[in-house]
Amino acid sequence: MTTLTLAIVLLFPSVSLAVMADSRIASLQRELADRPPGERIVFWAERFINTPYDPDPIGEYVSKRAVVADERVDCMYLVFRAVELALGKDPADTLKIALDKRFMSRGKFEKGKVLNYEDRFQYGEDMIDSGKWGKEITGAFGKTLTIKGSRGRESVVMVTAPEIARNENLLLNGDIVFFIKSPEKRVSDEIIGHMGIIKKEAEKVYLIHASGVKNKGGRVIKVLFSDYLALMPFIGIRVSRF
To answer: Torsion angle, CA of 168/235/54/51, rounded to 10 degrees?
Structure first.
């Protein structure tokens, strides 16, 4: 793929992964292999723009016991898949990475089905703390604040929305941003309420994320990060980077 061709693909991310053949995915993975991990993560995240939001409460990929379910995505699956595709050498290697990274231990895959999704990451905070989803760099974005934890965590360190807004220029392509709920708004003891992927473009910072509500719908969109921060229902963030 020439630089011009790759630029065109990046500018027009309407070719959905749901209809992309494995051979095409493998070709793109080879062409992108020498690029930094963050750029590769952004590239694959953009392939999901306009993909419908997954309304299944536990995730369609979990209900189907599938590794690949690109027709509909929620915020966690979007991060899973973009990172796995970015780090994989080809679709077979991407599958191996998925069976490592999506699980607290390791996924078991037989006859096209995942056998142990009960062992998957269900909470964003567990993803961060596992170290499988990049190195946490939250403290690099300004003064941190400690809030009440849950599920065995006494406390959680985060950066507030105003603080990250002042330092958003420090974010890089492919950074994974985890949005933190106020302790009073937790429903299932969850600390992380949402997640997305950073894209820097023309000196602006964007967030690519699956915007939607379970049982209702939505789609994957790219929005100015500052606009999202201004209206989001979360009190702060944690950030990881590959």
So the answer is: -20
